[in-house]
Amino acid sequence: MREVVIVEAVRTPVGRRKGVLRNNRPDDMAANVLRELVQRAGVSPESIEDVIMGCVSQVEEQGLNIARSAALMADFPIHVPGTTIDRQCGSGQQAIHFANQAILSGDMDIVIAGGVESMTRVPLGASRRQSDWSEQLSSRYEMIHQGLSAERIAEKWGFSRELLDKYSLESHRRAIEATDEGRFDQEIMPLEVTLDDGSTTVIKHDEGPRIDTTLEKLSALNPAFTEDGVIHAGNSSQMSDGAAALLLMSRDKAEELGLKPRFRVVARTVVGSDPTLMLTGPIDATRKVLDKAGLTIDNMDTYEVNEAFSPVPLCWLKEIKADPQKLNPNGGAIALGHPLGATGARLMTSMIHELERTGGRYGLQAICEGGGMANATIIERIEA
Hints:
By secondary structure, the chain is of the alpha+beta class. It has helices at 26-41, 66-73, 91-105, 135-138, 146-157, 161-180, 215-219, 251-256, 281-293, 311-320, 333-336, 343-358; strands at 4-11, 15-16, 50-54, 82-85, 110-118, 191-194, 200-203, 240-250, 263-272, 302-305, 362-369, 373-381. Helix 1 (26-41) packs across helix 2 (66-73), helix 3 packs across helix 12 and helix 9 (281-293) packs across helix 10.
């Protein structure tokens, strides 16, 4: 049976919305990571059989199939196609799944999977504009804002505001520690940015982590979605800009090309979940992917569960009975940011490098998604 391996992974720094990457077009960022990926891997763009990229708001500079545009901008040959997909916050992870499936089926041997989003230049909701839910949907399900879903999760699982804020503070602490120790240096490609005065500079680090964050400052923030709520800007993921990409191959092709397979994809799944609570999908997705792999949560050396809001990883921890020390060890989206379509590829890139740094064997990644869905993936490090 064919085996799918990950050969290389790279990402841009993640910038805050309206921050250091505000003048960088998303298609330029996507092209930059594609170009960097093949250079790092030492493969010819000629050999790439498809480019699959996640992107949620597919309008304006992110419209008209940004994956194809980025491939052409990266000087890939015209015979290399590209397609852009939207599985909401899990789009970049779904791109990895689709690439995996194309290789497993035998249709392709070498595929790039990734994602991109500029929430500065293409604001959240830009693709929906002023339209509302169809009555056929709203009459069947209570369709609410994700922030309200997070409020309901916090209430259902009994999470206090203090607990949520402490989790957020720890996310920043871990991200700052990881940055200071250079844990992200290998996975991040330095990115040239243009400043408002026309000058340029090079960005090498994520902009999101806040050194001055304290529990007192978090506790002073006003609730964002309900007057007496517990969810606010400080315990929610940051709106962000960024891009990431991974190179996947059949193991036979990697060995034929003399490339070192770094990880194999063990199992993957996607599930639907309650569209009102919306953010609980990673629980069922985790159970399903572990069952597919014939493994348990205790076999996992690290896990990345996207921090859409603090209650999301916390309810996952409680239901899965996982080790909090293994969860998002270098911080998550609350500190590092959540550039929607890019996040799935960013998390996988970071998890790969963390497992290599620590010598861990298995990693699990799960992301909640708009409309009530979740992807989950298990990877295994390949010994040298």
